[in-house]
Amino acid sequence: MKNKDIKNGSLYFNVKKDRVERVISNNFSNTRVVTECHKTEEVSVQTKNLRLATSLEVESYLAPRQASLLRRIGSALHLI
After folding, report:
1. How far apart are CA 43 and CA 52, in angstroms?
2. What is the predicted pLDDT for the residue at 74?
3. Considering the entire predicted model, what is its pTM?
4. Of 30, 31, 38, 45, which one has the fewest beta carbons inside 10 Å?
């Protein structure tokens, strides 16, 4: 993938790490971008190792966050 085609905030699949990551800076260099995985790990990644994430990959990336939110809402409702 070319650096100019990569958009900040979009989800891409890192083929080297076999996971979905969000691009947080595409201005790092001409061949690398900075990504994060669930706001826990920021890394520099070569653009050749990225491809657009499929809809299923995006759903699986977002699912843990949605489940965590639902658990917190459920816990809060039990306290009322």
Report:
1. 17
2. 66
3. 0.76
4. 30
- Neighbouring-strand partners of residue 40: none
Low-confidence ranges of the chain (pLDDT < 70): 64-80
| DSSP single-letter state for residue 38 | T
User: Contact 19/57 with Cβ under 8 angstroms?
Assistant: no
d(CA 20, CA 11): 6
Predicted pLDDT of residue 2? 83
The pLDDT score that the predictor gives to residue 6 is 93
State the Cα–Cα distance between residues 68 and 21, nearest whole angstrom.
18
Q: Are 80 and 34 within 8 A, CB to CB? A: no
Residue with tokens 């949605």: 66
